[in-house]
């Protein structure tokens, strides 16, 4: 093939297309591997869309950030001879593209060629994005039904990850989350192929630490996923992130699919698939990328609802449970059965009104915070409630009488050691035989008697 003649022929060919169009070439590498992609030539519409940085024969990544999915589509068209159509988001250009790649006959044994035609649009169109293969569409629908099929997120995750294993024939699939504020990582769910032994996830002590996971953002770049198909890909990763690559090799990772979970374009976790069937990597990529979108949305929604529920049950000043949380606790305790023991402490913060009147409400708030911190040092935080004003409660389900009495005595001892905080205390331990309302009234009566004695001992403090 005469190089100049081919170039002229291709240029005439692309100029016949109204939409942005170019001819791409890809080097032929190992089976399943991608070689360098070059833009052989392009029409005026393509040149205009790409800007002044374009020139014939350039490597495509000199113009646009590398994207595994796009490179795979070029490989399928130029090397494997398959027509490819996709409607995908190009994050580097902040837009969506309707893409078509058509194989071209190549007489070059070392290179394959394809025609690339695309159209820009600023927003995705659901009808076009729905144009995925029938088999993958069926698997996505089935997995989404699993995702929505349980009120328990953990159960839903297990079902979906099992579906991913079946489609990808992988050894393991995981959903991992990271907390940028706490700089921690956590395993939300994991599914392993039967009989496969995989290193247990241990949070920051595991191969995947916060720093490792955070580094994935730079590796993924503007793409929607990261893919390792062979040793060559692992070697390339080792140049960018040697610690991660060496760690994966050490535990037997041969192939990897990594797709980010996003919330408002911010990555908060990853769908992670290890040692899948490389011969199915096109289908696996399509399935995993779509499922990462649905998983990300579902997890983000769950996190939001959890946060809202927590806010609605937490006292904003002290961080303890509020009156609503206390009522829910009492209801749950009542449902659990009358024979289960529990300890109850009614607490009233002495002198709060005097502090508010004398030093202002900011000083009163500081006293309330000090009081809550004292309680946290003695009792479990989930057993503590501020019902409002100067009222605090401790509800200890399943506690023995001996342990309950010891905790209350510790509180009294700490009050004697720190004279800033003083509670009127009304405690009552119920073996389960007494009605909850009667137990509550009993503790309340003891508390008011204790409060009366406090003000008799301190007549200088104005009683609330």
Distance between the termini: 99 Å
Q: How much strand content do the residues show?
A: 15-25%
| Helical coverage, percent range | 40-55%
Largest sheet: 6 strands, antiparallel
**Total beta strands:** 15
Tell me the number of helical segments per DSSP (H or I, 4 or more residues long): 15
Query: How would you describe the shape?
Result: elongated
- Radius of gyration (Å): 32 Å
The neighbouring-strand order within the major sheet is 3-2-1-6-5-4
Structural class by SSE content: alpha+beta
Sequence stretches where pLDDT stays below 50 over 5 or more residues:
1-5, 124-131, 201-205
N-to-C SSE string, H for helix and E for strand = HEEHEHEEEHHHEEHEHHEEHHEHHEEHEH
Task: Describe the 3D structure.
β13 and β14 (391-397) form a beta hairpin. The strands form 3 sheets. The chain has a 6-stranded antiparallel beta sheet with strand order 3-2-1-6-5-4. A 5-stranded antiparallel beta sheet has the order 8-7-11-10-9, with helices on both faces. The model is unreliable at 1-5, 124-131 and 201-205 (pLDDT under 50). It has helices at 3-15, 44-50, 68-79, 126-129, 134-148, 153-168, 210-220, 231-240, 242-250, 281-312, 323-335, 352-359, 361-378, 401-417, 436-457; strands at 21-27, 37-42, 58-59, 84-90, 95-104, 111-121, 172-179, 184-192, 226-228, 256-263, 266-274, 342-349, 384-388, 391-397, 423-430. By secondary structure, it is of the alpha+beta class. α6 packs antiparallel against α10 and α8 (231-240) packs across α9. The protein has 15 helices and 15 strands.
């Amino acid at each position: 093939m005469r190089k100049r003649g081919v170039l002229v022929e291709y240029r005439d060919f692309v100029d016949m297309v109204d939409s942005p169009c170019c001819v791409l070439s890809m080097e032929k590498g190992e089976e399943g591997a991608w070689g360098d992609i070059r833009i052989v030539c392009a029409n005026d519409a393509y040149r205009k869309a790409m800007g002044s940085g374009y020139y014939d024969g350039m490597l495509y990544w000199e113009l646009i950030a590398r994207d595994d999915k796009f490179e795979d589509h070029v490989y399928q068209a130029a090397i494997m001879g398959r027509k490819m159509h996709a409607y995908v988001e190009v994050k580097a250009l902040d837009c969506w593209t309707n893409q078509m790649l058509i194989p071209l006959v190549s007489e070059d044994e070392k290179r394959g060629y394809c025609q690339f035609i695309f159209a820009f649009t600023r927003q995705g169109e659901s009808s076009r994005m729905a144009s995925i293969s029938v088999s993958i569409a069926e698997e996505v629908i089935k997995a989404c039904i699993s995702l929505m099929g349980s009120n328990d997120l953990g159960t839903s995750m297990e079902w979906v990850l099992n579906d991913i294993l079946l489609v990808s024939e992988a050894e393991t699939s995981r959903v991992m989350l990271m907390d940028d504020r706490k700089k921690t990582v956590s395993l939300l769910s994991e599914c392993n192929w039967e009989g496969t032994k995989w290193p247990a996830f241990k949070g920051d002590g595991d191969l995947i630490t916060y720093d490792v996971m955070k580094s994935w953002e730079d590796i993924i770049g503007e793409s929607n996923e990261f893919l390792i198909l062979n040793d060559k890909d692992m070697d390339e990763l080792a140049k960018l992130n040697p610690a991660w690559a060496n760690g994966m090799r050490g535990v037997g990772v041969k192939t990897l699919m990594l797709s980010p979970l996003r919330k408002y374009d911010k990555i908060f976790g990853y769908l992670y698939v290890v040692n899948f069937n490389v011969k199915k990597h096109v289908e696996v990529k399509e399935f995993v990328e779509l499922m990462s979108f649905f998983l990300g949305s579902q997890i983000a929604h769950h996190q939001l609802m959890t946060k809202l529920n927590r806010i609605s049950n937490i006292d904003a000043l002290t961080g303890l449970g509020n009156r609503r949380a206390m009522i829910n606790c009492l209801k749950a305790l009542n449902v659990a059965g009358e024979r289960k023991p529990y300890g109850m402490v009614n607490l009233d913060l002495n002198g709060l009104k005097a502090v508010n009147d004398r030093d202002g409400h900011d000083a009163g708030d500081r006293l309330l915070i000090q009081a809550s911190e004292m309680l946290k040092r003695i009792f479990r935080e989930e057993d503590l409630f501020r019902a409002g004003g100067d009222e605090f409660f401790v509800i200890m389900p399943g506690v023995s009488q001996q342990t309950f009495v010891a905790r209350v005595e510790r509180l009294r001892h700490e009050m004697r050691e720190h004279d800033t905080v003083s509670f009127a205390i009304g405690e009552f331990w119920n073996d389960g035989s007494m009605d909850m309302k009667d137990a509550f009234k009993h503790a309340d009566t003891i508390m008011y008697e204790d409060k009366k004695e406090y003000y008799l001992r301190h007549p200088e403090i104005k009683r609330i």
